[in-house]
Amino acid sequence: MKKVAIAINPSKDEKNEIAMKVKEKLYKYFNNVEIIMLNSYDIINYEFKELLDLIIVLGGDGTILSVARGINGKLNVPILGINIGNLGFLSSIEVSEMDKAFLKLKEGNYISQKRMLLTCDLPLEDIKNESLALNDIVVARGTLSRMVKFQIFIDGKRYYNFKGDGLIIATPTGSTAYSFSAGGPFIYPDVDVITITPICPHPHGMQTIVLNSGSEIEVKAENEDEEVYITFDGQKAIKTTNQTIIKIKKAKEYANIVLFDDYDYFKVLRAKILNNWKECEGD
């Protein structure tokens, strides 16, 4: 490792105490490493003049999502997430595992797994270069508006019309997030598919559909003069005009997530998603 960036969520590490520990560990395991400190909120505006070997993200899943969107339109640098948030499903390690993780990095006992990104084509000026999503792109009604009528086309062919609160177009990475909460299936992270899951459809005839990642999805949302929003990874929201045609497809860019040789997806799924869900249900 010659050049490493540390992207900090300032709300999770206000005094930079964890960031300083990460720097110390990097200097311990990698001689002459150059370290760049970044604020995760501003990373989309940062100009990377040289290639990075690694970007370490300090935060939770939301921080990793924002960093993945912010950097991977520019460079496909591996992301190592260190969880200092709540869930940490996308994180590679916990803070207590830094020594073990950096030793594995030094010895090359890891992989950089490509994760699909989605992109949205809209005739709106304010989403240019910011339309990527690692988890999902959601088309949904405003908080107080009525149900929306959705028309869905896949590769130019009409799939389904329905009324409801919204649609979740998700990557395999995002299958454990909002899509799962709305009744969608878990998809293994490296499977090359896209899912469409309705939010509160009326009637209940529409279920999740799984598509080849090469499919192009067109959504036309009709809600008269009321609000319809497109949201990227639950973080960036764009208000659309009535009957705007929204085109969503797999992006050319992708995110690289660092996974170590002892990574067990199903163990993480049980610990971070399934067990938490059962606890919420009082099980």
Task: Write a brief structural summary.
With 283 residues, this protein is an alpha/beta fold. The protein has five helices and 17 strands.
The overall strand count is 17
- Low-pLDDT parts are 279-283
Spatial gap, N to C terminus: 45 Å
> What form results from the Cα inertia axes?
elongated
Task: Provide the helix percentage.
Answer: 10-25%
- Note the main sheet: 11 strands, mixed
SSE string, helices as H and strands as E: EHEEHEEHEEEEEEHEEEEEEH
User: What's the Cα radius of gyration?
Assistant: 20 Å
**Class per helix and strand makeup:** alpha/beta
**Arithmetic mean of pLDDT:** 88
As a percent range, the share of strand residues is 35-45%
Distinct helical segment count? 5
